[in-house]
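DUF951 domain-containing protein
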Amino acid sequence: MQAKSYELNDYVEMKKPHACKTNRWQVTRVGMDIRIKCQGCGASVLMPRRDFDKRLKKVLKEENAAE
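Structure:
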């Protein structure tokens, strides 16, 4: 099983949508724990990296990336 690569400020899609019906999240902290911020309502969730890796569906590419 290959680990999906994600970095700080990446946008990700989780397997299940948030209560506000949005499935787009921004990674705001990377370490032993991962903090993600809902792009619909602004809620923030902190979870262990192991749980995050299980619940991650895919890493989204930002359309207007400034790099």
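The beta strands are 11-14, 24-29, 33-38, 44-48, 56-60.
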